Automatic annotation (TrEMBL):
It comes from Halobaculum litoreum. This is Bacterio-opsin activator domain-containing protein. Residues 7-133 form the Bacterioopsin transcriptional activator GAF and HTH associated domain. Residues 162-178 have a biased composition (Basic residues). Residues 143-153 have a biased composition (Low complexity). It comes from the Archaea. Residues 132-178 are annotated as: Disordered.
Length: 178
């Protein structure tokens, strides 16, 4: 089934910190791409008043080797990005705990990440690993939810014939970062 976690981290703890500091109103999205290699986020979508400026800022980032424009609109650009081989603490701890990043959007200087883990125990292992390694942990906390499945029980009939709702088995929790 899997557990989905919504996490917010500061830009400096994930990627493109300088770009987001200089152009805080830009919306940057790491495109969802099926990974075939060990590369980190090969496509980045930018929405901004001046996408050319933000493209130049991305190209100037210390951890970016090359940027190639793929598509361009009035207020957005899709870029092919080649990153350096420097390890990134958040992605490393997520993959080490058996998780995957399903979404990454930067807004107002913070990254909002969608993560998926096999179980709540994997989420706990990831969070503990962040602390143990001294890696950045979520700055504003995180929430986990189980997605709905076809295995969710249907409402059962009551003696009056009306349907009652069983309590959902889908758990959720709220944890705070350090």
């Amino acid at each position: 089934m899997g557990v989905h976690a919504a996490v917010t981290v500061r830009a400096r703890e994930f990627a493109l910190a300088r770009t987001l500091a200089v152009a805080p109103s830009a919306r940057v999205t790491l495109e969802p791409v099926v990974p075939f290699g060990a590369g980190f986020a090969p496509a980045v979508r930018i929405r901004a008043d001046d996408p050319d400026l933000v493209t130049d800022l991305v190209a100037a980032e210390a951890d970016v080797r090359a940027v190639e424009p793929i598509d361009r609109g009035d207020d957005e650009a899709l870029l092919g990005v080649e990153w350096d081989d420097r390890p990134r603490p958040i992605p490393a701890t997520v993959t080490d705990a058996g998780g995957q990043c399903t979404e990454a959007v930067a807004v107002d200087g913070s990254w909002h990440l969608g993560l998926r883990f096999p179980t709540h125990d994997h989420v706990a292992a990831w969070y503990g690993d962040c602390r143990d390694r001294g890696s950045p942990s979520p700055s504003s906390g995180f929430a986990t939810t189980r997605p709905p499945t076809s295995a969710t029980p249907a409402p059962s009939p009551t003696p009056s014939g009306r349907r009652s709702r069983r309590p959902s088995r889908r758990g959720s929790s709220r944890c705070r970062g350090r």
